[in-house]
Amino acid sequence: MEEKDRNRPGSVLIISAIIVGLFVLWGALSPGSLERAAEVGLGWMIETFGWFYMLSTAFFVLFVLVIAISPFGKLRLGKQHERPEYTWYSWIGMLFAAGIGVGFVFWGVAEPVLYYHDAPVGYTPETPAAAVAGLRYAVYHWALHPWAIFSIVGLTLAYVQFRKDQPALISSAFYPLIGDRIHGWGGRAIDILAVIATCTGVATTFGLSALQITGGLSYISPIPNSVFTQITIIIIVTFLFMFSAAKGVDKGIKVLSNINLAVAAVLLVFVIAVGPTLFIAESFVTTLGGYITNVAAMSLTMTPFTESAWLGTNTIFFWAWHIAWAPFMGLFIARISRGRTIREFMAGVLLVPSLLALIWFTTFGGTALNLEIAGAAPIGELVMGNVELALFATLGELPLSSITSIIAVILILIFFITSADSASYVLGAMTSHGSLHPSLFVKMLWGFLIAGTASVLLVSGGGGLSALQTASIIAALPFAAIMIGMIISILVMFSSDYQKEGKRTRKKRIRQLKEEIRDEFYDDMKEEVYEEMKEEVYEELKDEMKEEMYEELKEDLYDELNSDKDKK
Question: Whole-model pTM?
Answer without folding.
Answer: 0.82
